[in-house]
Amino acid sequence: MAAALAPGARVPAELVAGDPNEGHCYYHGHVQGRPGSAASLSTCSGLRGLITFENKSYVLEPMDNVTDRYKLFAAEALNGVWGSCGSPPSASGPTAGGGRPPPSRTRHKRETLQMTKYVELVIVADNREFQRQGKDLGKVKQRLIEIANHVDKFYRPLNIRIVLVGVEVWSDIDKCPIGQDPFASLHEFLDWRKAKLLPRKSHDNAQLVSGVYFQGTTIGMAPIMSMCTAEQSGGIVMDHSDSPLGAAVTLAHELGHNFGMNHDTLERGCSCRTAPDKGGCIMNPSTGQVLAPPAASGVGPQLDRRVGNSEQETPRVSGQSTRGSFQKEIPPEMQE
Fold first, then answer.
1. CA atoms within 13 A on the CB side of 259
2. Which of 100, 166, 176, 300 could join 17 via S-S bond, C-beta 3.0 to 4.6 A?
3. What pLDDT is recorded for position 304?
4. Looking at domain 80-317, what is its CATH homologous superfamily?
5. pLDDT for residue 330
6. Pairing state of beta strands 234-238 and 205-210?
7. How far apart are CA 11 and CA 330, in angstroms?
8. Binding site feature residues for Zn(2+)
9. 199-237 per-residue burial string, b: 16 or more CB within 10 A, e: under 16
10. pTM score, two decimals?
11. Which of the residues 76, 129, 146, 254 is marked catalytic?
């Protein structure tokens, strides 16, 4: 998809990015004969991923200790610790994005939403995540790339592409304090990103995937309407499920906050066609099983201001264009 270990790399905590086609095994596609369906899959270690059609989401995974056999089950049956986003409801004011944009901006907003935007993402795994994945650097890297592949698929209906330009695994020690207090951990990570990560790797947004269990019910947190800023374009995500899908959904939710999206609530006039017990929608306050894409109505002028200032041209990874190469469409023989 984008990130790959440099050949012979000896420093596993180093930020790594390589040829997008190296070891390519990540796909986007749809179910034949099912309009509106979507699929984001990986073939790196068996066929696995997410398939969505008729407002229902299903997880595909290899069966344990059985070759070439797979299990398909409803996404709400995923094992994990489910919780909620720790980001507070946005108050009215400049960060709320309420009201209509000035008339002079309306045409620009419409054009902005029609233009494909590329957000260059870096995902960092903390030391606890590295330990929880058996201290297997390759396994952690593959998990982070799979997470990014799902997130990219979630945002495609909004004409936004999430391009993974690097992953970093803190295999030795955390590079900033990460603990059970999600608020403190978020700000420590954002400070580290600005001071240490941005100077050595250009990107639009960075997300920390943590193996730490945060206090209370919080499984993610991010500043609202902060995309592409040096100070606050990022978030933290608790890896709360056996499947990478759990963290992918939470990461997509926190990215939504960075874009300027608030939680979907009845008070805000937002409705979701998918019932909470069936997964809900990406920006529901109680996230975790959320597998429906963000609603375009939740973007509004915030997307115009924030993503409009992000990458409009095709990003490049290791000097190569990523358009059409950082993910592949599912070949016909895999679509049935």
1. 31
2. 166
3. 55
4. Collagenase (Catalytic Domain) (3.40.390.10)
5. 44
6. parallel
7. 34
8. 253, 257, 263
9. eebebbbbbbbbbbebeeebbbbbbbbbbbbeebbbbbb
10. 0.77
11. 254
User: Which residue is listed with tokens 């490049």?
Assistant: 316
- The pLDDT of residue 90 is 52
The yes-or-no answer on residue 254 being catalytic is yes
* Cβ atoms 310, 119 nearer than 8 A: yes
- Domain boundaries along the sequence of the chain: 80-317
> Which amino acid would we find at residue 332?
P
Token readout for 187 is 């700000």
Residues of the chain with pLDDT under 70: 1-23, 79-113, 264-266, 268-269, 271, 273-280, 286-336
